[in-house]
């Protein structure tokens, strides 16, 4: 349930960001991926967006605590339902940290933790 709220918040936030109701520094258009879905759920889109934002914030030598902190920083930039984002981060933080340390592509990271399946095509 919390994940569905988190996804809804992200989608609404991007719509509000485009409408000018949310300042531009909360969600950048360039940071939001839109993909054709090939047997995928929305969690894949959300995961890749969060991973991309976190990768921009972390240094190469980031420690586990730094990575978890940056995941929460990304959540703090979502003005609505921050608690849902934090629950998402809590649920996947171990796997996300492990994958972020590998410096893989965001899509690959989300595939590796099981949130993306199949092939994504950027549109």
Automatic annotation (TrEMBL):
What SMART domains does its record include?
SapB
Q: Which SUPFAM superfamilies match?
A: Saposin
Name the UniProt record assigns to this protein: NK-lysin
- Gene3D superfamilies for this protein: Saposin-like
> Which Pfam families does the record match to this protein?
SapB_1, SapB_2
Q: What's a single GO BP term from this record?
A: lipid metabolic process
Q: Tell me which domain of life the UniProt entry assigns to the organism this sequence originates from.
A: Eukaryota
Q: Which residues form the signal peptide?
A: 1-17
**Boundaries of each Saposin B-type domain copy?**
40-120
UniProt keyword terms in alphabetical order: Disulfide bond, Signal
């Amino acid at each position: 349930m919390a994940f569905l709220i988190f996804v809804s918040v992200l989608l609404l936030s991007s719509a509000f960001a485009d409408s000018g109701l949310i300042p531009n520094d909360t969600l950048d258009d360039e940071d939001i991926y839109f993909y054709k879905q090939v047997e995928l759920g929305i969690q894949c889109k959300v995961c890749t967006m969060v991973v991309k934002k976190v990768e921009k914030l972390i240094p190469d030598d980031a420690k586990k605590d730094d990575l978890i902190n940056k995941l929460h920083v990304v959540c703090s930039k979502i003005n609505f339902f921050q608690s849902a984002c934090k629950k998402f981060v809590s649920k996947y933080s171990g796997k996300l940290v492990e994958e972020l340390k590998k410096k893989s592509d965001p899509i690959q990271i989300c595939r590796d933790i099981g949130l993306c399946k199949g092939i994504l095509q950027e549109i």
